Amino acid sequence: MTTIGLISDTHGYLDERVFEHFKDCDELWHAGDVGSVTIIEQLEAFKPTRFVFGNIDSKEIQWKLPEHQFFTLEGFNIWMTHIGGAPPNYNPAVKKKFKEHIPDIFVCGHSHILRVIRDEKMNNMLYMNPGAAGNEGFHKVKTLLKFTLDNRKMSNLEVVELGKRGAITR
């Protein structure tokens, strides 16, 4: 059993409450637009973290992080990338890759729109976008996802709201 904290689009701002919400997680996934090497360091010091870079990330971050993560966890084949699109309008590069292999779980960021949905036309693949956790962008509320994977079963899916975009709280 593995509990995951999923975050994206921090754009250089990491809300301190992320650490409280993700304290019981076994690992974290960051779906791109990290925005700062400091955020990479903070998250890696906190929990094992899988990252991908996003379109706003500097060359320094792009050298540190992959564009795609393909991995297997708890029996699930998972693909994480930043710019994925959304069902049924996936990014053309993603559509091309789906012709080779459709993962069980597809994770992306970029849109700043929280969405978790099954795509029946893609072998019932689970599409996950945690929205945006940073202060930059058009989203109104900063969001995260938390869930558990256990032997090809997902449970305890939770949406975490961190408050309004741009609001600094202590």
TrEMBL record:
Record InterPro entries: Calcineurin-like_PHP_lpxH, Metallo-depent_PP-like, Phosphodiesterase_MJ0936/Vps29
Residue ranges constituting the Calcineurin-like phosphoesterase domain according to the UniProt record: 4-151
Keywords, alphabetical: Metal-binding
Pfam short name (any one): Metallophos_2
Entry's EC annotation: 3.1.4.-
Domain of life: Bacteria
UniProt cofactor(s): a divalent metal cation
Protein family per UniProt: Belongs to the metallophosphoesterase superfamily. YfcE family.
Protein name: Phosphoesterase
The organism of origin for this protein: Emticicia soli
